[in-house]
Task: structure prediction
Amino acid sequence: MKLILATHNASKLAEFRALLAHWPVELVPLTEFPEVRQWNEDAPTLEENAVAKALTVYRATGQWSMADDSGVEVDALGGAPGVQSARYAGEPCNPAANNEKLLTALTGVANRRARFRCVLALVGPGFPPETIEGICEGVIAHEPRGTGGFGYDPLFIPDGYSQTFAELPPEVKNQISHRARAVQAAWERWGRKLFGDASGGSPDG
Ligand code: ITT
Result:
């Protein structure tokens, strides 16, 4: 069974490949469907955007499609940038400008509490779109650190660590990230029933 990863973000795609490695599906990148162009990502919630991406690809291909919409929520900014994370500093998406804008917004702010939130959407033949969420709590650093990852990773220090996601090895991020948690929850809710149990346990367990 093929599962299309409905993302134009190459770094996100690489994470999905690692996170879904044990799913008994053939992962297909969106680059194999050049006719599927951009989708609307201007809905007010991560859920709506994630479903819009997965549905766009499913409607164009008829194949199982998975997408995520994700973002960082900063308590001192009332949850911003949140659903606007990709476009925080304007269009087109510019991660360095986004990080700079976030640091500027937090100048002199002691409360750095934040979280990454990922909403995963899955849709397929006979399976209307469903969503599931993963959250990773942490704090915003005082300056960008590290070269790994993407987006806000140089600024995000997950709880329990002193390094940013961009400093931590990808294996660590892929164990604890919002995306990792969403994929794990997805496997527990849908994976075994839909795709069989690659781990050898009961399909219903
Ligand atoms: P697709 O829509 O094509 O999947 P995108 O990059 O536009 O790619 P989103 O719409 O979900 O993805 O935007 C999420 C933004 O939030 C993204 O641009 C990053 O800036 C940030 N983000 C999401 N997950 C992240 C992560 O794991 N690490 C760092 N930043 C992340």
Notes: The chain has five helices and six strands. The pocket of inosine 5'-triphosphate is lined by residues 7-9, 12, 41, 68-71, 85-86, 93, 95, 98, 116, 149-153, 165, 177, 179 (CB under 6 Å). The radius of gyration is 17 Å. The helical segments are 10-19, 46-61, 95-105, 170-176, 178-195.
